[in-house]
Amino acid sequence: MALRRIITGSAFAVALLAGGVAQAHPHLVGSSPRANSGVAATNRVSLTFSERLLAPMSGGDVIMTGHPGVPHHMPMKIGGFKASVAPDGKTLQFIAARPLAKGSYQVKWHAVAADTHRVAGAFAFQVR
After folding, report:
1. Range of the domain at 95
2. How many domains, in total, are found in the chain?
3. d(Cα 68, Cα 103) in Å, to the nearest integer?
4. How far apart, in whole angstroms, are the C-alpha atoms of residue 96 and residue 83?
5. Is 77 within the bounds of a domain?
């Protein structure tokens, strides 16, 4: 009976640990520009995560979703952005040679950390 309790207790502990590992996906903890904010022209978008990222498996796109004076602007992926992971290992950055034009934008991102599970998300901001 005591052996059964030890085995059952050990199995429970392993299940708890495995569950903790499965929950260890990177979470977006901040961005620049911040979600739903308005900013001056910028050529950089930075996303900070809760864990170190695997650079070859993390990235995304910057998409223009609205342009002043164009009533029904079709979303358009903005070319020229280079995605990379910063030296801190937790910041995914998109850098372009030129600042973004006035308008509304969406950043669609995906990130992978040591657990190799891909997480994805999106947020919007405006350039004034």
Report:
1. 26-127
2. 1
3. 6
4. 9
5. yes
Q: What is the value of pTM for the model shown?
A: 0.79
Residue 62 CA to residue 47 CA, distance in Å, equals: 12
Q: Are the CB atoms for 49 and 26 separated by under 8 Å?
A: yes
For tokens 């280079």, name the residue: 82
For residue 5, give both structure tokens: 């309790």
Integer Cα distance of 77 and 44 in angstroms: 15
Q: Is residue 3 part of a domain?
A: no
pLDDT values of the chain reduced to their tens digit, one per residue, 128 residues:
554 444 444 444 444 444 444 457 899 999 999 999 999 999 999 999 999 999 999 999 999 999 888 877 789 999 999 999 999 999 999 999 999 999 999 999 999 999 999 999 999 999 99
